[in-house]
Write a structure and sequence with these properties.
Blueprint (H helix, E strand, L loop, with lengths): L5 H16 L3 H29 L2 H7 L1 H9 L5 H13 L7 H31 L8 H12 L2 H4 L3 H24 L6 H18 L4 H13 L6 H32 L9
Helix pairs in contact: 1-5, 2-3, 2-4, 2-6, 2-7, 2-11, 3-10, 4-10, 5-6, 5-12, 6-11, 7-11, 9-10, 9-12, 11-12
Length: about 270
């Protein structure tokens, strides 16, 4: 798969973070919009397969196809820029400031959310014949997912909030490994394999991904899910996004940077 050693692709990771911070606003919005839309389609595809087969693992096996496509196209997810852009600041790249990083995160969030919302409405039309019929089995399944992953956590109060935060951490630990995986190889097949494995793991384990949820929860509300917009933001999107940030940055980004870019002094025994 034309594998690159960690010392080689770690530098590419920092370069990618710097490049994203210098992109034009228009390009950031378009790329993040398309990333959200493609990931949303992959999510509804995976849930559809799981409902049709009754085997959720099959949906998890197939979900990464959307993730692989969007990263090969150079599109951006919020979970990815959470990891890449701070490394450019840590490496003291020219012109990289926290103001620029936060602006980038905000633009990517808006683009991802916009793409997910558009796909949510389009798929709602598909599954209800233009709102002329009741939701089908897939629509109802996603509606119940929305309820379980908001009100289900709220039942446990602070313990529920901590649980979803940790699920967000574990999620972006895996997803950010997928982002890095795209840089581990110089061939398309190698990139696919390296991205596929950790993303499949996150989906199969039911961890929480902030961008996937930008589709699932609006779609669930359209399909009749019994929870509010505030329930979604307080008991899902906010703790999940924070967990994604902490998990991806510390468990993937900083671990990679400190051991392969800014390594500790060599010991001579």
């Amino acid at each position: 798969m034309s594998y690159l050693a960690p010392a080689e692709f770690a530098q590419k990771v920092v370069d990618a973070g710097e490049a994203k911070l210098h992109m034009a606003t228009r390009d950031v919005l378009i790329r993040s919009f398309m990333a959200g839309a493609i990931l949303a389609l992959a999510a509804v595809f995976a849930v559809t397969i799981a409902v049709q087969t009754g085997v959720p693992l099959i949906g998890a096996l197939l979900f990464p196809v959307g993730f692989c496509m969007l990263y090969l196209l150079g599109y951006d997810l919020l979970t990815g820029v959470f990891v890449l852009t701070p490394l450019a600041w840590l490496d003291k790249r020219p012109g990289v400031t926290w103001k620029r990083i936060l602006k980038n995160w905000g633009l990517v969030f808006l683009g991802n959310f916009g793409g997910c919302l558009v796909v949510a409405f389009l798929m709602a039309i598909v599954y209800t014949y233009g709102f002329a019929a009741e939701p089908n089995n897939v629509g109802l399944a996603i509606a119940h997912i929305g309820e379980a992953r908001t009100l289900g956590y709220a039942e446990y109060g602070f313990a529920g909030w901590v649980t979803i935060f940790i699920r967000g951490m574990l999620c972006n630990w895996m997803v950010s490994l997928g982002v890095i995986g795209a840089m581990m190889s110089t061939t398309v097949s190698g990139k696919f394999i390296a991205m596929w494995m950790p993303v499949m793991l996150f989906f199969a384990m039911g961890f929480e991904h902030s961008v996937v949820n930008m589709f699932l929860f609006p779609f669930a509300m359209i399909m009749g899910g019994d929870f509010s917009i505030m329930d979604y933001f307080i008991w899902n999107e906010l703790p999940v996004a924070l967990g994604n940030l902490v998990g991806g940055l510390t468990l993937t980004g900083l671990a990679l940077y400190t051991t392969h870019v800014r390594t500790a002094p060599r010991k001579d025994f």
